[in-house]
Design a protein that fits this description.
Blueprint (H helix, E strand, L loop, with lengths): L2 H18 L18 E13 L5 E13 L3 E10 L2 E14 L4 E8 L4 E10 L4 E6 L4 E9 L1
Antiparallel strand pairs: 1-2, 1-8, 2-3, 3-4, 4-5, 5-6, 6-7, 7-8
């Protein structure tokens, strides 16, 4: 091999190496959110565990449709399964609040006014998705909501 060929191969190797270490796009937190960022129908799925008063563990899963009104109100219907006992068509309503940094809270109650969940949330993808986690004691629930 000539010195010229070796130099060309070396330059190609350097170019390939630089290409492997180029700067990747940086994810940035959203800002400027309000309750208006959540408006419309969202597919909702929540699951996890909770503890009964006697200390035994229960299992929780639900999936349904939630409608956010863009003013801090939410309502919907889901199917819930608690410890293997499903209930279909459970209706719920509640409230949500959104902070400027796109975090917030949502509290849901069933049709009889009994609390279902109190969750912290973070809005993603311009209000098209939410990540949720329960903040109640003895409850380990998380979930997602996606704009329909």
């Amino acid at each position: 091999m000539t010195k010229k060929t070796i130099a060309v191969f070396a330059l190609v190797d350097v170019a390939v190496l630089i290409g492997k270490f180029t700067v990747q796009p940086v994810a940035r937190a959203q800002s400027g959110c309000t309750v208006a960022n959540l408006k419309g129908a969202y597919g909702l799925a929540i699951n996890g565990f909770f503890y009964y008063q006697d200390g035994t563990q229960g299992v929780y899963a639900s999936a349904g449709l939630a409608n956010a009104d863009g003013n801090g109100g939410i309502s919907g219907t889901d199917t819930v399964n608690i410890d293997g006992s499903p209930t279909r068509g459970r209706q719920f309503n509640g409230t949500y609040s959104i902070n400027n940094d796109c975090t917030g809270t949502v509290s849901l109650k069933d049709a009889q006014g009994k609390a279902i969940v109190n969750m912290d949330l973070v809005i993603a993808n311009g209000g098209k998705e939410m990540a949720l986690v329960d903040y109640d004691s003895d409850v380990i629930l998380n979930g997602i909501a996606k704009f329909q």
